[in-house]
Amino acid sequence: xxxxxxxxxxxxxxxxxxxxxxxxxxxxxxxxxxxxxxxxxxxxxxxxxxxxxxxxxxxxxxxxxxxxxxxxxxxxxxxxxxxxxxxxxxxxxxxxxxxxxxxxxxxxxxxxxxxxxxxxxxxxxxxxxxxxxxxxxxxxxxxxxxxxxxxxxxxxxxxxxxxxxxxxxxxxxxxxxxxxxxxxxxxxxxxxxxxxxxxxxxxxxxxxxxxxxxxxxxxxxxxxxxxxxxxxxxxxxxxxxxxxxxxxxxxxxxxxxxxxxxxxxxxxxxxxxxxxxxxxxxxxxxxxxxxxxxxxxxxxxxxxxxx
Length: 307
Ligand code: MG
Ligand code: MG
Ligand code: MG
Known about the structure:
Blueprint: E1 5-8, H1 15-30, E2 35-39, H2 45-54, E3 60-61, E4 70-74, E5 90-96, E6 110-113, H3 119-129, H4 136-150, H5 160-173, H6 177-187, H7 196-201, E7 204-209, E8 212-221, H8 224-228, H9 231-245, E9 249-256, E10 261-267, H10 273-278, E11 286-289, H11 295-306
Parallel strand pairs: 1-2, 1-4, 2-3, 4-5, 5-6, 8-9
Antiparallel strand pairs: 7-8, 9-10, 10-11
Helix pairs in contact: 1-3, 1-4, 2-4, 2-6, 3-4, 4-5
The structure holds magnesium ion (3 copies).
């Protein structure tokens, strides 16, 4: 594996991280460059829905990379969210749609950052720019990533670029956007057989602001109430993680994807920043945020600024 260039998204991979790694491997193939898409964690149920729909296997799981391994990062740049050993790997390229933080290389690289709703939208535009035809599989991979990251174009992170890309990809892949999109998103809300520990890690992102470590985790649901039935176990799991990782704050967002709201559980010594960040009082370590669905655009910036 050492000789292959590896492409991967972030830890606790979401549909964009998996599908964009695969789509970018294909794009590289068309460019005559051999790369290999891999993943840094379990495939979630939403992504599994996409893989099953296409009848394809998930990329191989890797735990760490060796020194000087050539890598391409998609859908992330922060080392806290990347593979073990990333500091000593050779980062050839980054394709991402997040803020840039805790990122440093010792050599020059290609860095594509666009403030779009999804990494796959950046890739779609690259396919177009190079005049490559997009086949059904490629279209479904990229469309699914866009549906996931933009919650079917309803998230405030959605840009005109994402809308255009998704419309064209839906045409190519011949999927009914509403039908396929809702089914795919709903597949990701089947949380019953996860333990509380698994739930808080399913889509957790760790951040580090001047040495203050915190996590913002998120789960999608069609019923916030349903998830809150396990409130006590969730809080226990969160408090354990805070202790284990030495975190100052753990924010767990339970996002209702049908009504576009989130219930938040906030624990840790810095939980009181919630008041300045969102103007809300914590009640029972919880508060409700109307119209909030995006970690990247609505949660992270407010928390990062106030921590
Ligand atoms: Mg992602
Ligand atoms: Mg993404
Ligand atoms: Mg996401």
